[in-house]
Amino acid sequence: MEPRWLNEQEERAWRGLMAMEDGLTAFIDRRLRTRCGLSHADYQVLAHLSEAAGGRLRSFELGDRLHWEKSRLSQHLTRMQGRGLVARERSEADQRGAVVTITAEGLELISAAARQHVADARDAVIDQLTAAELRTLATITDKVRRRLAALESAGD
After folding, report:
1. Is 9 domain-assigned?
2. In what residue span(s) does the HTH marR-type domain sit (predicted)?
């Protein structure tokens, strides 16, 4: 069956979205690395842990929030643990499971990085849009994320 090719407007929107995503990810990653010594992935891990009760999450919960495969999470946590940003321990409730905890050093680093990160987010995106454009962007991202979740649960 022949695919439904994108028309000019659809292609412009799609390519613009992909270019924006790539550019924004590279910008944020570069800023985090040069200002804070964190990768974007480090920031995501620390942000989720810092927002969790007691700074702790089960490994599978953290992986679900990040949408990462188990092996990627494990390898990344090993590197972060080696840098003293997180700690891992066996779950008291389930000896097979692991709990990831943000360390004092990790908490200090994410606190400093968050201030820079929000300034960068404002400079690159938030402050460039009107209130109406922000509402539209939120509507669009919510709609696409719901569709992605439905496609994932359907098994591609």
Report:
1. no
2. 10-146
- Amino acid letter, 116: Q
pLDDT exceeds 90 at position 93: no
**Do residue 38 and residue 115 come from a single domain?**
yes
Which H or E run includes 150?
helix 131-154
In whole angstroms, give the CA distance from residue 44 to residue 42: 5
Helix axes 8-36, 104-124, angle to 10 degrees: 140
Looking at the structure, tell me whether residues 70 and 111 fall in a common domain.
yes
**CA nearest 27: which of 108, 117, 126?**
117
Separation CA 78–CA 146 (nearest Å): 32
Has this prediction a pTM greater than 0.70?
yes
